[in-house]
Amino acid sequence: EWRPKMFVLTGCTNLVVRDITFGDAPFWGLHMLGCENVLVENITVKNRLDVPNDDGIDPDHCRNVEIRNCHLTCGDDAIVIKSTRQTNDFGDCANIHVHDCVIRTQDAGLKIGTETTGDIHDILFEHCKILSSSRGLCIQLRDEGSISNVTFRGIQFVSRYHSDPWWGRGEAISFTAIPRNDSTKLGRLHDILIQNVSGRAENSVRINGSPASRIENVRLENISISLNRWTKYPGGVYDNRPTKVLTPVEPHDTDGFNLRFADNVSLNDCSVNWANDGPAYFRNSIAAENVTALQIGKFEGASAAHPVLVR
Predict the structure, then answer these.
(1) Going by DSSP bridges, is the β-strand pair 57-60/79-83 parallel, antiparallel, or unpaired?
(2) Closest Cα partner for 237 from 168, 303, 179?
(3) 240 near 246, Cβ under 8 Å?
(4) In angstroms, how far is the first alpha carbon of the chain from the final one?
(5) Any idea what DSSP says for residue 213?
(6) Of the candidates 270, 255, 262, the residue with the CA atom closest to the CA atom of residue 303
(7) pLDDT at 84
């Protein structure tokens, strides 16, 4: 708690943050809490890659926000939309547009969560480049709020394993709805579009709900994933953290697309390409478990082991 944030802007209206550079943040960088009508433009963040919690930009319970033309280097999440637990009611987090940013991080590049105590909706991420991450695109629902109407479009990324204590395990895309603890009444994650996205990764595209909260209505269109291993860290795992309900870091084979506890998922014009010398835990192009109304169209790419596994 002794680590300060670089900026805490609370309850601001008609806020403009433009043309500044900061770095070496010991905790979150630009934290905007309960702000409305916000423009963040041409911000450069130069944080250390080996410092945890040094997020770049954190809109939290904010509305009508545009973040554009920013360059961010962070050990933790680069741009992350949250609804943290507060004593005051700051309202939903909604109508946020993030575009034309360049990101380098050891955690998630573009993210919603993990703090999701209030609703988050109508979010658009587009035309960004993620040069390095541990999860390219990420949504983590862990609390009672719901997340809906989210679009990721026109994004390129690289996602890789990092040192063992770090968050993320090289997942290309990771959308999870998992209770934080046994007492959590989990919200819903639904109506998500991922369109015109390509990337190189060491781990799967994950759409992973739970019996407590199934993920609904996810469309993946023109998604191209290349899977390989190029770092030295142990693989064959998924990162479920933070949770006290499931195994935090779960041993699991690496599938191209792994779908669990989800309804009405469609994959159209998607592809998976595998490295020729990949490890034995590189497995299926698509693996679906406890999934309903799965639609697959124009899917390309041989699997590392089996073409399609549906349980």
Answers:
(1) parallel
(2) 168
(3) yes
(4) 45
(5) B
(6) 255
(7) 98
- Whether the CA torsion 220, 61, 176, 79 is positive or negative: it is positive
Give the Cα separation of 3 and 27 in Å (integer): 6
3-state secondary structure of 228: coil
SS3 string, 271-300, reads EEEECCCCCCCECCCEEEEEEECCEEECCE
Neighbours of 85 (CB within 10 A): 11
Residue numbers of the chain with a pLDDT score lower than 70: 305-311
- What tokens does 84 get? 């943290």
- Tokens for 13? 């209206």
Q: What are the structure tokens assigned to 225, written together?
A: 């994933």
- Number of other CB atoms surrounding residue 18 within 10 Å: 10
Q: Which amino acid would we find at residue 214?
A: R
Is the distance from CB of 214 to CB of 190 less than 8 angstroms?
A: no
Gap between the Cα atoms of 87 and 79, Å rounded: 24
Residues 153-163: tens digit of each pLDDT: 999 999 999 98
